[in-house]
Amino acid sequence: MQESCPVSFKKVDGAIIRINSFWVSLGVVLFLYTNSPIWLYILFYDSSMRLYGKKIFSPLSHLSIFTKKILKIESDISDAAAKRLAAHFGLLFVFLLILTSYLELQIAIYAVASIFLFCASLELLFNYCIGCKIYFLAMNVIAKK
Question: What residues does each domain of the chain span?
């Protein structure tokens, strides 16, 4: 995803992020299918490690890198700041799914999961990051002040 100028000078491999979107989506689907929150706890742990801990402790990061190598997918360099905000949104969605699951709010579970899966699918299939768009909009608003 290229916007008018880089917002941070850190770069990430967008291909890894898209593959990670697949694994995260699979985790959400497994949760919906089995109704077992263990999948959400795994996703929460993984997202927390990628955002606040060390990526070396993220099983999905390792799985995504391995998948990229096996499928021989080319790298796609992206701005890290926008992808990081999108990852925070993902962590928020996982937290909301855990909360709504704990409270047994079935309609809320399906609503949150649907929005989350829609956003992850856009990233995976079309390289379109809603969190990134929100980030760039926010940066434009902040820059105009």
Answer: 11-144
